[in-house]
Amino acid sequence: MDIRRLRYFLVLADELHFGRAANRLAISQPPLSVSIRQLEETIGVKLFERSHQKVQLTAAGEALVPAAQALIDRMNHTMHQVRDVDKGVTGHLRIGFVGALLYQGLPALLQHFQQSRASLQLNMLELNSKDQLSELAHGNLDVGFVHASRLPDGLSSLLFSSEELVACLPQHHPLANQPMLKLHTLRDERFIVFSRQISPYYYDRIQSLCFTAGLDPDIRCEARHWLSVLSLVAQGFGVALVPASLRHSAMAGVSFVALEEGAMLSQAYCIWKTEDQRPVLAAFIAAVRHAVEHPQTGLLTQDNICQATE
Question: Using an 8 Å Cβ cutoff, are 168 and 246 in contact?
């Protein structure tokens, strides 16, 4: 059924006068008369009683008014939904993240992104970097935030943050109150890390930094999440090298000490499937890029947020 004819019908049903209805529709009267006649032929009933004195709805016409209005309203709603999908303001995004990103501006970014997108559904899932890569490959995630620079083919990436690593020590450790220390001074300590199986990039990164500093880390404990690392340090199981933003975790029983060695960085990347061209994902990546390139917006509050790169 032609929606335009239904619109003409509703205006005529409201005005009950062909001249006034035509003026309201900004058309001449003959096309209006033709459209109403064609609508009646399509439905197979007479919708109006016409005379020189007046135009009046038939019983069938009166029954059509609410149904036609509901159909047009439904069509308008559908058109708005389609346009919103095309603009990337509605849809569904499944977002993976490593725990450290909770202290590097990610929550503020997500909240800001959704403020003007009430119909957008964001689902967040904390996973280590390796698991995020697997979930992306299997289509269970749309975008991830990972500690991994070596990515499989078919993924695009955007540098989200780059920050210094610091030593995380038990609160009562002899070096806990030092303003700064050399990594080599931890040569006799037990280390807490992510296992190579869980986060190969981070495990290899810690190993490489330690070897460069002249120590072979005594790894006694492996964890899956950053807060688990901090909790294990607090309980005296060892020391760890962690992103500086974890100072904001408010974990009791630990101290964070800067390292004298420079260029010990923890980098986080936003990643997604290159072939995924959905407008909602493109809008999200654009928001991430803008937040990174314009830290003055306050979405990413850490001083060490770096510029975005492909």
Answer: yes
- How far is the C-alpha of 113 from the C-alpha of 297, rounded, in Å? 13
Q: What is the pLDDT of residue 104?
A: 86
Q: Do 52 and 117 reside in the same domain of the chain?
A: no
Number of structural domains found in the chain: 2
105, 300 Cβ separation under 8 angstroms? yes
3-class DSSP state of 227: helix
Residue 63 and residue 154 in one domain: no
User: Do residues 305 and 295 touch, judged by C-beta distance below 8 A?
Assistant: yes
Give the H or E element holding residue 135: helix 129-137
What is the span of the domain harbouring residue 54?
3-87
Let me know: does 298 contact 172? Beta carbons within 8 Å. Answer: no
Task: Indicate the residue among 32, 58, 87 that finishes a domain.
Answer: 87
Average pLDDT over residues 191-212: 86
The pLDDT score that the predictor gives to residue 308 is 33
More confident position, 274 or 262: 274
Are 181 and 36 members of one domain? no
**Pair (265, 149) in one structural domain:** yes
State whether 40 and 149 are in the same domain: no
* Rounded-to-integer distance, Cα 135 and Cα 142, Å: 9
Whether the predicted pLDDT of 135 surpasses 90 = yes
| Rounded Cα distance, 298 and 159, in Å | 18
Q: What is the mean pLDDT of residues 163-184?
A: 94
Between these two residues, 261 and 273, which has the higher pLDDT value?
273
- 272 phi/psi in degrees, rounded to 5: -160, 165
35, 57, 87: which is the final residue of a domain?
87
Report helix angle 59-87 to 279-293, nearest 10: 40
What CATH number does residue 41 fall under?
1.10.10.10
Q: E strands of 149-249, at which residues?
A: 155-170, 180-181, 190-194, 218-223, 240-243
pTM, full prediction: 0.65
